Amino acid sequence: MRLSKGWMIAGAALGLLISIGMQTFGMLLLGRIPSLVVFLFWPFGFLGGFYFPTAPVVLPATLANAVLFGAVAAIFRSRFLLLLAALGIVAWWATPPSDRRLTQRFSQHRSLLQHVVDTANSGFRHRRNHRNSG
After folding, report:
1. pTM as predicted
2. Closest by Cα among 60, 55, 59, 20 to 41
3. Which among 40, 43, 95, 97 could bridge 101 via Cys, Cβ 3.0 to 4.6 Å?
């Protein structure tokens, strides 16, 4: 199998940029990146102590990610872009919804949730009254 040097360099550069971007995002405390996303895009980040960026193995973990992305890009070539798109879709699908989205969903289903609570409360009262009468 012949590896493509151009794809290898592009993949390594992307792997390096992703690692540095995730570290920068984490250091600036812009928000916690879900663990699944870290694992998908920076698999060696856990070795580097992603949430403790002063760990001595951050640089090797970052370089290992660049090598991994470079190797995968060299092997898969143009299909590497499809693989990245698939990783992006999995990461987007698996991340939890935002607080705004949860509030929206709650508002949409408020009547159903209220019905469930009312039904549960009436069943509880019925059982309590039945125990007290017997």
Report:
1. 0.66
2. 20
3. 97
Q: Region of 63 please: left (phi>0), alpha (psi -120 to 50) or beta.
A: alpha
**Residue 72 burial by CB count (10 A; 0-12/13-18/19+): exposed, middle or buried?**
buried
Q: How far apart are CA 58 and CA 103, in angstroms?
A: 38
Residue 54, phi then psi, degrees to nearest 5:
-90, 0
State the Rg of the chain over Cα. Answer: 24
Give CA–CA dist 72/76, Å, rounded. 6
Q: What are the CA-CA distances from residue 67 to residues 26, 86, 123 (Å)?
A: 22, 20, 61
Residues 41-99 pLDDT 10s: 888 877 766 555 556 777 888 888 999 999 999 999 889 999 999 999 998 888 877 78
The angle at the Cα of 97, spanning 96 to 98, to the nearest 5 degrees, equals: 120
What element of type H or E holds 58? Answer: helix 58-76
